[in-house]
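Supplementary Methods. Inverse-folding protocol.

Structures were first reduced to a discrete structure-token string of length 477. This string, shown here, constituted the complete conditioning input.
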């Protein structure tokens, strides 16, 4: 492990860099090549344009971390390698030190690939964010990772990064210009009636109101939930629901503007969706039963998740619910909280963005167990024979898509199935596959190409004519 550091007065670079060698490497090049570029992974053919590299490192640190792989083409995944890894390391260190503030300490691996080497730069979610590109300045140099691209963070995003670094929550902030009379205590008590009778101390415990400069004032969360003039202070804190006649937004059949207190808005939004969802008829032993095209629990979890985890500091877009012929889209402002990935939340990892909202929704019974909502949504859809929901970060928004069509398994003949089974054990070359399925190399290659085009198999090599090219199953297989 190599550590570089020096006294600031000497003018030398001052940075700690960990370089892991083969014996303690974090991930093999084959494992990286089996993944697709996205929020936490980027490939670059060479360490040429320093600006692009700096933007990626900054974006990884400000968002959920990630790995930058040098020596692999980003589109084709052809492995070109790094000619002089030690020189590349030194150059990367200089890029990080000279161009990023506050300074970062990424881990650098040199990974062997046949007769060459590849450099992997591991950047971790930072507790000192927001980081920025010095030359561009703070206003234009703070980047975040959205999908496989780096975007300039707006003011709301940078403010959220600062709060996260200080472990602060937007909805816990006091509203000093208002007093407790801004809260509709009657509406709150009505919503809690089936659970308990609210007392004044409950409003303080839930942080709907807090003491600020010896006065009782509402919090941001209190105003979002039960503010008498919520629309005045948060003009986008409402739900726009729409029903469309096809698979796009060309034909609008019905729409609703849902503006009540957020817990009530959730119920109204659920009713809008279930009222318009198509039904199927199931014949039972005694009587017929109508079944919704989507499991009610999946619809409920998706809507609750959007409302509780929306970034209400953003302006310009409400929560949107769009019901199409083949799917339901639920979109809320705000990327995933820093440090989380789409894969994380599918596996039950949770990070609260709005602590006051989460606390109140939990008390009302909308949230049963922290981090389990997305898993229940996935489980309900899969159990109903539907396609797995799709989770995406689009622009500064998060979108969950639930599909109404039944899932169909890929059609595989016995030979294709045998290839899939063979690759389930280990990676194989074209010749090895041809031998095992008792076909010519040309016939095996044709079948492999078909499986690749259908997303069932991936190839890893330095190019289409690489004699050492091997085939793998995707990570999700």
């Amino acid at each position: 492990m190599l550590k570089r550091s020096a006294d600031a007065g000497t003018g030398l670079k001052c940075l700690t860099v960990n370089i892991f060698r083969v014996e303690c490497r974090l991930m093999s090049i084959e494992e990286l090549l089996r993944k697709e570029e996205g929020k936490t992974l980027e490939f670059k053919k060479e360490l040429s344009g320093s600006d692009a590299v700096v933007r990626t490192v900054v974006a990884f640190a400000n968002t959920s971390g990630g790995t930058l792989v040098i020596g692999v083409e980003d589109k084709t995944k052809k492995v070109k390698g790094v000619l002089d890894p030690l020189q590349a390391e030194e150059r990367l260190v200089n890029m990080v030190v000279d161009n990023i503030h506050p300074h970062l300490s990424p881990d650098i691996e040199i990974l062997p690939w046949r007769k060459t080497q590849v450099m992997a730069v591991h950047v971790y979610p930072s507790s000192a964010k927001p980081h920025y590109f010095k030359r561009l300045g703070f206003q234009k140099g703070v980047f975040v990772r959205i999908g496989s691209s780096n975007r300039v963070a707006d003011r709301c995003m940078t403010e959220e990064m600062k709060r996260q670094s200080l472990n602060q929550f937007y909805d816990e902030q006091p509203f000093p210009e208002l007093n407790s009379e801004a809260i509709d205590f009657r509406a709150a008590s009505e919503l809690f009636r089936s659970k308990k009778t609210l007392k004044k101390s409950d409003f303080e415990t839930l942080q709907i109101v807090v003491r600020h400069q010896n006065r009782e004032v509402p919090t941001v969360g209190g105003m979002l939930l039960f503010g008498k003039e919520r629309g005045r202070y948060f003009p986008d804190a409402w739900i726009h629901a729409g029903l469309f006649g096809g698979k796009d937004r060309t034909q609008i059949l019905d729409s609703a503007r849902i503006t009540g207190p957020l817990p009530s808005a959730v119920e109204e939004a659920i009713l809008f969706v279930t009222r318009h969802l198509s039904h199927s008829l199931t014949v039972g032993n005694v009587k017929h039963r109508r079944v919704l095209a989507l499991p009610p629990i999946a619809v409920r979890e998706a809507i609750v998740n959007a409302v509780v985890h929306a970034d209400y500091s953003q302006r310009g877009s409400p929560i949107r619910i769009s019901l199409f012929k083949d799917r339901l889209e639920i979109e809320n402002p705000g990327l995933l909280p820093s440090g989380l990935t789409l894969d994380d939340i599918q596996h039950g990892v949770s990070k609260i963005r709005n602590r006051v909202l989460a606390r109140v929704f939990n008390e009302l019974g909308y949230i049963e167990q922290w981090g389990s909502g997305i898993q229940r949504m996935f489980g309900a859809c899969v159990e109903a024979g539907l396609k797995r929901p799709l989770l995406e970060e689009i622009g500064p928004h998060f979108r969950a898509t639930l599909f109404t069509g039944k899932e169909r398994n890929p059609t595989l003949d016995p030979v294709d199935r045998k290839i899939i089974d063979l690759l389930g054990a280990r990676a194989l070359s074209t010749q090895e596959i041809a031998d095992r399925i008792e076909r010519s190399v040309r016939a095996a290659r044709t079948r492999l190409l078909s499986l690749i085009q259908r997303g069932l198999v991936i190839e890893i090599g330095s190019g289409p004519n690489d004699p050492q090219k091997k085939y793998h199953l995707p990570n999700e297989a």
